[in-house]
Structures are given as structure tokens and as C-alpha cells.
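Support request, please re-run this one:
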Amino acid sequence: MHTDTRGQKFCLLLEGPAEEAPARKAKAARRRSDSPPLDPLEITEGVSYLVAATGKRPRLRRKPGKSADEAFVLEPVWTTQPPQLLMLTMNGEAALVNGAPAPPVALLRQKDMVQFGSASDCVAHVTIYNEPYVGPPPADVIGKTCPVCLATITSDDTARVYVCHHCRTPLHLEGEEAPPERRRECALVSPNCYYCGLPVVLEKGYTYRPEL
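Re-run finished. Output below.
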């Protein structure tokens, strides 16, 4: 699973009749310790086009095709709190969100359940995959101030920071490589970012997984 530079990515966890997957894909899925018991459909940044053909699993394309089955447009919206997934319904198709008919333009949130038109036998659970950044300070945060200890972030060899996936605020999270008398663990002081208020996420994985 690859995330964008913000360390987050919207995903649809698909529940429904399974299609036979190639052997190498199934083997790779078994190796992933964080793989959910549902098929993940990863939504990349920008606009994606969803294919929802009768009797088949929904699929995503980066560019629009000629098929009338590609009746749904998806785009992540990170500027809202919480983040939302824009869904545009086209070609006269219909979708259900949490069992109710969706309008032509809808904003989906985590935990929403979506059934796409003719692929209504498959339920898509909306979630976010997190892969936080913890490591040496990236170039764009060097010189910024940690809001907890008020110290300036430097490129010191022992420096280790957590970077908020939303506002890029750096917080010290130094490990055993730092001397005990200098060790700062500012990211552990509060469950939320001091700047934007969003949760501090220190472990990779899905924010939400439905219990089946």
C-alpha cells in the first residue's frame, strides 16, 4: 500500500462475491500483516473513474474510458474536517449510501457504505489508510518550531520527528539513538496535533475496518 505525501489515502474495502484473483496477487495479500479481510480498492490523488459493471467487482481507472459502466467519478477532498471523498454520479446511474439513494453529487465520509449502481451486490466501505512519517526531519520542516517544546527542528543526526499528515507540523519523537538527557517525545504528549487538532497517528493501517 502506497500513500501520498500527506501519509494518508482513501480506500474502499469491498465486501461481496469474490472474483478469482491471480495466484501472485493472492500470495502477496497473505504476506501483508496489515491486510484486511476485505478487498481494498486504493484511491489515488486527483480524479478517478469507477467501473461498476453488472456481476463484477468495482474497478478504478485514472482516465475516463468509453464504457457506459464508468458512471462514477471519485476525488479525495482533504481540505474539509474530517476529510471526505467526493462522488459524482453520471450516465443516469444510481448509488446507495448507507442504504439510501445518493444525490448526483455526494461527499462520502469514513464508515459510509456505498453500493454502486449495477454492482449493487458489492458493498464498498469507505476508510482511510494511514502511513505516518516518523524519521529524520524532511527538508520542508527544518527550521520550523515544535509546538510542544518550542525548540527549532534541526538536521541534527540524532533528530527524529513525527510530521502531521494534514498540516505538516513537526513534533519531536526521538528514540533510543538520542541521549537520554536530550531525548524529546513531544508527539506522545497529546493525542491530537497542537496546530490543526487532528489525531496523532503513529502506526500505519486503516483508521476504520468494518466488523463482519
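Confidence is low (pLDDT under 50) at residues 1-5, 20-36. The CA atoms of residues 129 and 206 lie 4 Å apart.
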